[in-house]
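Morning F.,

Quick status update on the modeling queue. The single chain you submitted on Monday has been processed. Sequence for confirmation:
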Amino acid sequence: MRKKTKKTIGKIIIIFLVFVLFAGYIAYKQAFSVISGIEKPVYVYIDNKKNYADLLACLQSDAKIKNIRVFERLAAVMKYPANMKSGRYEIKPGMSYPELIRMLRNGNQAPVKLTFNNIRLKKDFAERVGEQMLFESGQLLSALNNPEICERFGFDTITVVSMFIPNTYEIYWTLSVANFLQRMKKEYDRFWTNQRLEKAQAIPLTPAEVSVLASIVEEETAEKSEYPVVAGLYINRLRKGMLLQADPTVKFAIGDVTLKRILYVHLAVNSPYNTYKNPGLPPGPIRIPSISGIDAVLNYAEHNYLYMVAKEDFSGKHNFSTNLSEHNRNARKYQDALNRNHY
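Structure tokens below.
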């Protein structure tokens, strides 16, 4: 009886061990298996308001993780829930549960490809960047309107927009406003090479003044091929002490960039941006100029043009002239075209 009992107990122990080993093998296989359902990179965002329950819901909805319990059990073993870090994380196809948890626990973020271009106003810039970063656009706008902050970077609240060179930058989503501005200043200094600085000095204009002129050039013409010609025209006027008389600065002054026809009432607007009344360049850019616009000023076309007016075919191109009588003839053609089209 005792022998049979011992044999029975032995069998039970063996069965139990086999069951435990099998269950352990299944658990191990699940824990270290590839996360299923991910066919292309998925991005998960964790901000300082998101708790662990929110993350689990996000992993299920965005990353389509079906067996979230496996993640929970392994996360508990790896002590992740108490070590959540804000960030933008990339879950790649073929990633295992331990790899995912280590990435989240260690805060190994995937950088954002921050892009901004074709921006007119400071407010527009703050909104465009705020859409792509963790900080709010209002925080950035507040910093750009702060004289002390702007002065730290060598600008004032008007010229500070010229510090931002339109491009695509790899940058961490969780970066603070202060660190973002420091990064943009580094990019600005990297952009303004000795070669560019020497070209600016030869005009002569400061980098900030180059940006102001480039912003006017870009608003004057939609044809990039005309950028250097338009830049040369305004440089000619500056050197002769002539008023720039740039229509885009008047549009900016009155706050309406959609105007097709500039009237005398518009030219009379009292604003430092009205280049029909004020000599020299306006106090700041009327948009954030592109790299091509800045380089067009630095590499302006040398010619004798002093006047320009839009072509009467509304192609976006311009007729250029060296004297006022020729300019007036071109201007009449354009005015007649406006009248025919009821502008």
